[in-house]
Design goal:
By secondary structure, this protein is mostly helical. It is built from 13 helices and five strands. The protein has a three-stranded parallel β-sheet with strand order 1-2-3. The protein has a two-stranded parallel sheet with strand order 4-5. The longest helix is centred in the C-terminal third of the chain and has 30 residues, at 302-331. The protein binds tryptophan (TRP).
Length: 341
């Protein structure tokens, strides 16, 4: 069988999946995973979650919810390798090895770390490193290990993660230079901005802005969220601009091209915000209903979900084991029987 390109993405398990994730990441990734010329690795980055919070219940339930969500939305766990990071201890082991050859100066330049420092500086904190953990600082190394342990070729990520993939390339090249060509140099595949949806306040939908619309709300809750979407104060009958309207942009993400065109026309014709929101609400409710039904079935049976992830881990370990063995050998962690005479 010919070698398939390996496409790998991780999802940090510290939040509830929202419709921005659904339209921008989950559905496109599930679609892409059907490409028969690639092998897809998709994992729950549960150790990454500890960087963002110390709430064990959040890490645990978020892992579970996100796993159920991806399966409910149509991920075929027989075809892709779907696993939890924590089930693959080789990742942690490799992270240490990579850390030992990564310049601290490289990590000093990481955006996430730098912005934490500048936030402290902006608040006039005496210690600009206040509250910054080694987890946050080392984050790009753990991410490199996630990618390199499977010799992934392509890493689809948002623009904010591009730098981490570039660091992974640097780190992999340094390893190969020091110890021999073990790692594939991966490439980032950057998702277009159209994947980024606005939240109910008009800014990018993100848990940190508290403006998300969770995927699995019940009907009434969903309706309430949609009714809260911020709009301008144009009256019914006044033409409205669709381009920068949150209502319109959310609609477009789930509607056909034809329906989108019609919706746009009704904006020009002065549809009222109340009516536009009703239309958006019905579309979201209809689009999400089938996933919601699957999700409700899946969460009834946590042990089956556990089994699915463990079988994914088994497949992943078959690939990571030979690579970590090569790494150990290359760096000099090997049997005393191998000591050269
Ligand atoms: N850091 C990524 C994010 O927050 C998630 C992630 C962890 C990841 N490890 C990865 C993405 C490896 C791609 C490859 O979005």
């Amino acid at each position: 069988m010919s070698y398939k390109r390996r496409v790998l993405t991780g999802i940090t398990t510290s939040g509830i999946p929202h419709i921005g994730n659904l339209a921008g990441a989950i559905l496109p990734a599930i679609e892409a995973s059907k490409d028969p010329t690639t092998k897809t690795f998709l994992f729950l980055a549960d150790y990454h979650s500890l960087i963002k919070n110390n709430d064990s219940d959040l890490t645990h339930t978020s892992s579970f919810d996100i796993a159920a969500c991806w399966l409910a939305c149509g991920l075929d766990h027989e075809k892709v390798i779907f696993y939890r990071q924590s089930d693959i201890p080789h990742i942690m082991e490799l992270a240490w090895v990579l850390g030992c050859l990564t310049a601290k100066g490289l990590l000093n330049r990481a955006h996430a770390y730098k912005s934490a420092v500048s936030e402290n500086e902006a608040k006039n904190k005496k210690d600009s490193e206040k509250g910054i953990t080694m987890g946050l600082f080392n984050y790009p190394i753990l991410m490199s290990a996630d990618i390199l342990i499977f010799n992934a070729n392509i890493v689809p990520v948002g623009q904010d993660q591009k730098q981490h993939v570039e660091m992974t390339r640097d780190i992999a090249s340094r390893f190969n230079h020091l110890y021999g060509e073990i790692f594939t140099i991966p490439e980032a595949s950057i998702e277009k901005d159209k994947g980024i949806l606005p939240g109910i306040d008009g800014r990018k939908m993100s848990k940190s802005y508290e403006n998300i619309i969770p995927i699995f709300l019940n009907k009434d809750e969903l309706r309430k969220k949609v009714m809260k979407i911020k709009t301008d104060s144009k009256e019914p009958g006044e033409p409205k601009n669709s381009e920068n309207s949150t209502v319109f942009n959310l609609y477009r993400a789930f509607a056909s091209a034809k329906d989108t065109e019609e919706f746009k026309k009704s904006f020009e014709e002065g549809i009222s915000w109340g009516e536009a929101k009703e239309i958006l609400f019905s579309l979201l409710e209809d689009s999400i209903r089938p996933y919601k039904e699957n999700y409700q079935e899946l969460i009834k049976d946590p042990l089956s979900l556990e089994k699915i992830l463990l079988s994914g881990a088994e497949k992943a370990l078959d690939i990571s084991l030979p690579i970590i063995k090569q790494v150990r050998k290359a760096v000099g962690i090997r049997s005393f029987g191998d000591i050269p005479k």
